[in-house]
Write a structure and sequence with these properties.
It is built from four helices and eleven strands, in the order βββββββααββββαα. With 211 residues, it is α+β, with helices and mostly antiparallel strands. Pfam families: Proteasome.
Length: 211
Amino acid sequence: MASAPLFRTEFWRNGPQPGSIYNFPGGKTEPDINPMKRTMNPTVTGTSVLGLKFRDGVVISADKLGSYGSLARYRDLTRVMKINDTTILGSSGDYADFQFLTNLIQERVIEEECLNDGFGYTPLRLFSWLTRVLYNRRSNFNPLWNTYIVGGLQDGEPFLGYVDKIGTAYQAPTVASGYGAYIAQPLLREAFETNPNMSLEEAAKTIDRYV
């Protein structure tokens, strides 16, 4: 005598095999946590920024070229930003990261102006803030791929500082980033040591020679 089926097959019409599960369209069977992705290859980049102290202030200069890989793609990118009347910022490296940080700085500058409490960004304050931001991003394995040159007047005295993408920072009478750190920096140091009290015209001529 044949045994009766354990279940009625009509109830399984157009369904999965017994013991299997339904495949719902659009459903996810893999874990919902995906790996975080970071930009590890800058796309549009700028090269050297040079900075030099002179008797009454600082000179910072950079070209306006934006390179797409090895292609000289963009010819009019501004890489030196005026923060306020006493502070200026230059950047080499990934241009998108520079835009992100300049937008953030501009928001903070506007907030300070709205408070109208007499405080604002001085070169030293911006320099210190950048070291913390860049070191924090580096520690989170999501660095901003830039090197920054901060210059201006701090309490009436020339200020010039360097901060790279991992938060390494120092102050010096001459600074350079990118390829200029290898080529122009020794020449700038020699020019400053030869004439540490140079005028604005002399400093501008020196910077223009090496940019």
